[in-house]
Each structure stands twice: as structure tokens, then as C-alpha cells.
Write a structure and sequence with these properties.
Chain A has 232 residues and is α/β, with parallel strands linked by helices. In chain A, 40% of the residues lie in helices and 21% in strands. Chain A has 8 helices and 12 strands. The radius of gyration of chain A is 20 Å and the shape is elongated. The structure holds a DNA duplex (30 and 30 nucleotides).
DNA sequence: TAAGCTCGTCACGGAAGTGTCACACAAATT
DNA sequence: AATTTGTGTGACACTTCCGTGACGAGCTTA
């Protein structure tokens, strides 16, 4: 399925601190990635898809807060949990940090034990089967646990790609996506396929859904597709 | 909105390779600039302000990595996305490249398709579309995220051009625009179409909006059109 | 190895969208 | 009132975009 240990991206401009944290986390069974600034961090996020980010308040260039805000605004990274690190226990920072979208907040110095504890808590909170809940839209049901789709209790047989496509749509309803965005989100960012391939899978998905539900997937001419219960 | 094609700076010391890449990118609709070394590249960046840089790993004089690092450190160019090119798929390079601030990484040889795909992905990522809030004017709602227009909650069906036109008007209310200005802003600067074409699209848009909202688009005789809630 | 699936690509045809024209109509100018 | 100028409107050819069936490559299963 996926890898066993969760991976954590440590973003801090001071290498020794990164190292220290990395050692502590690795002992606790986490895989560690490191980045010294916002650019590196972004590259790592895209490339390695960590499960959580430890983000230092102070960063050269783009500040930690600003970076957090940016991540939360980006659709693909909005779900990524962030823990902020700050040197002094200034309450102002805490508020700003949380407002920027951080999920938790630790002041340096902190014990490894505290760090791991918070980390676990945040992961438990944000990883859980938020995506594992069945989704139902007007008789169309997608159950991630059983990995099964039913239309009015009648089982729908679709391939893995169509399944992921449908799952993405059902968790991101009403919003229009370009073919490129769908390739990014459903196929995964670093594969190359023709954009028109999306059309074909849309077609297969529609066909599988049948007349009762195919209208849920709407074409947005000149743009892409949209999953919506509202008529166009 | 802005210019249609993005411009890409190709930095490689071998002219044939630059040429090959340039051809591939131009076919995909990108404007290409070229540079054989770090000095030339820097001059081009200042002068032409490309939207993305394709940077060869090996360069005479200042190496690609070093150059990338320098760019990221410079304030004015820090946001410029960089894709690294390298001859061999050495993982070491990859890490170094990403740490130096590259946004993506391609190993030669690569297919033009792959190149274009990655390029698109990086551009999409690094051009965080401005926060797209829905705009509402007296019952007329345009939602950029859903790519949808509703008049008193009733969906309005319009083509891409009318959509862009309406979006422009709603973000630039109360001001009169000439046909030439509208062609510039909505059609994009470097296309030639008859000015009277604007009239036709205005007409189509008014028709689609229906009696309830068509009066929002007002004719300014001798000048052009205006989107306004105030009656004339 | 063959059979069965899924996937990505292509080519064709049809549908929707686009730009231009001609003419009708309205407003300003004489 | 007649003329000139500017805009509304319907129709048409043309282009672009999307739906669709078919096909071969790769992978898994038997």
C-alpha cells in the first residue's frame, strides 16, 4: 500500500537544528526530509509528498508564516498538517501562526518527547479516515473502505483510474478543474500523459455511471470538467 | 488577461540542444529565449524577464547548480521557477539540484512531451492564481472557482468568451471601455479581430443574462460599453 | 503462453463557439 | 426632414473543442 513510517519535512535554516530534530524523529520511527528555505521546502513537498511539515517561524526570504499561508491556499497542499516552531514563546506569534493555518505550535527549546507527542497528535487528528468516510450524492455512493461504488445500491464496475477520478470529484464537488489539474491530482504530478486522456476516462466513468448519474460530471467547455449536482 | 504564451529561457552551452528544445517548446506555444552560459542567462533574465528557466546542470564557468543557488538568493529572481536538466540520472544531482532551489528536475534524454508536461506543471504550481473570490452584483453571481454564472440562483449558460467578458466587467465596474480596450483585456493583446465583434459578444452576453440583468451592460455611445448598477 | 483487463493514444465526426457580414434601427448632425 | 454616424441583431461559414469507438502495449491471472 503505502510506506509504513510517516514522513516529516523539517524546514529550518539552521542545519544543526534540523539534524537534531531529524535524529529525534528517526528514533521515533519517522522518515525525515529537510529543507533550509521555502523554495527547497516546496520542491520537497512536490517531490516527496511528506505527511507533515515542521516549519520554523523564521526563514530567510519567505517567512514561515507566509509560507504556511501559501501552502494552505494551494489546493493540493491544503490538507498538509503543519506544526510551527518558534524561538520565543510570544503569544502574538502563536495567534498569527494558527491564523496562517498551522495545526499546532511548539516553542523552542522543546524536548524530543514533547515534539513527538504533538506530532503524533496532529497526525492522528488529520490523517484519520477523513477520506475513509463513504461519500454519497443523490444515490451514488462511494465507499473508500470497501473500495466500492454503487449507483442506487447497484454495484458499479470501474477501473482503478476511474475510481480515483470519481473519488477526487466527489471530494471536490462543484469546482471546475482543468485537464492538467486532474492529471496532477488523480494521476499524480510527475507522470506524463496526454491531456485528452482525461477525456477518455471521463467518458468511461460516465458510461459506467449510467444515465442515472452521468450528468453529475459536467463538461466546462474550454476549461475542463466539474462534478456537480446542480444542473447547468 | 496577460500575454498568452509564457516565455522560457533555455540555458545550455550546446547550441543544437538549445535549438531542439526551443523548437519543441515553440510548437507547444511557448516563447523561447536562449543563453549559453551564466552571464548570458543573467542578462536575459534582467532584460526579458522570462517566466521559467530551463537550466543545464553542466555549464562552462559557473555551474548550473551554482547559478540556480545564486538566482534563488537574489531577491528579484527568487520566485523564478527553475527546471534542471542533467545528462545522467544520478540521484545525488537530484538532491543537490532541489536543494539549490530547482523546482523540478529532468534527466536527458527526455521526450519533448515530458518536457512540456513538466514545464506546464511547474508553471501552474508557481503561478498561484490570485485568490479567486466569487463576485456578486444584485443577484448576478460569477464564481471563478466553479467557473459558473448564476442569475438569481438560476444557472446561466454562456460560452468561454462571454464568460471572460463578463468576468472582466464585473471586476471593472462603473467604468467605460472602448472596443479596443476590451479586445486587449478580454481577447488578449496580440490577436486581430474586428472591433464590431465586441458588439456581437455584448449582444450574446446580454441575451444570456436575460431581462433581469442585461441592463447592467450599458452602451456608451461613441465610446464603448460599461458595466454599472446605476441606471443611465 | 494465452486470455483478460486496464490504460494511453489516435482519428473521426459532430456539436458548440467564434468572427464577420448585411441590414435594421436609433441617435446625433445638418 | 434628410443625412450621417453609430449600435442592435440575425444569419452564415469557419474553427475549435469534445465525445466516442477502436486499437495496441503492458500487466496480471490462470
Amino acid at each position: 500500500m503505502t510506506k509504513a513510517g510517516k514522513s516529516v519535512l523539517i524546514v529550518d535554516d539552521e542545519a544543526p537544528i534540523r539534524e537534531m530534530i531529524a535524529v529525534a524523529l528517526e528514533m521515533a520511527g519517522y522518515e525525515c526530509l529537510e529543507a533550509a528555505n521555502a523554495q527547497e521546502a516546496h520542491a520537497q513537498i512536490i517531490d516527496r509528498k511528506p505527511d507533515l511539515i515542521l516549519l520554523d517561524w523564521m526563514l530567510p526570504g519567505t517567512s514561515g508564516v507566509e509560507f504556511a499561508r501559501r501552502l494552505k491556499r494551494e489546493d493540493r497542499t491544503a490538507e498538509l498538517p503543519i506544526i510551527m516552531l518558534t524561538a520565543k514563546g510570544e503569544e502574538d506569534n502563536k495567534v498569527q501562526g494558527l491564523e496562517a493555518g498551522a495545526d499546532d505550535y511548539i516553542t523552542k527549546p522543546f524536548s524530543p518527547r514533547e515534539l513527538v507527542a504533538r506530532l503524533k497528535a496532529v497526525l492522528r487528528r488529520s490523517t484519520p479516515q477523513g477520506i475513509e468516510e463513504p461519500i454519497e450524492v443523490s444515490g451514488l455512493l462511494l465507499d473508500p473502505v470497501c473500495h466500492r461504488v454503487t449507483s442506487n445500491d447497484k454495484p458499479i464496475d470501474i477501473g482503478p483510474t476511474e475510481y480515483r477520478l470519481l473519488q477526487f470529484f466527489m471530494t471536490h464537488q462543484e469546482r471546475a478543474y482543468s485537464r492538467a489539474q486532474l492529471l496532477d491530482q488523480v494521476w499524480g504530478g510527475n507522470v506524463y500523459v496526454e491531456e485528452r486522456t482525461v477525456d477518455v476516462h471521463i467518458r468511461r466513468l460516465r458510461k459506467a455511471l449510467g444515465e442515472s448519474h452521468e450528468h453529475l460530471i459536467q463538461t466546462v467547455r474550454g476549461t475542463g470538467y466539474r462534478f456537480s449536482t446542480k444542473v447547468s
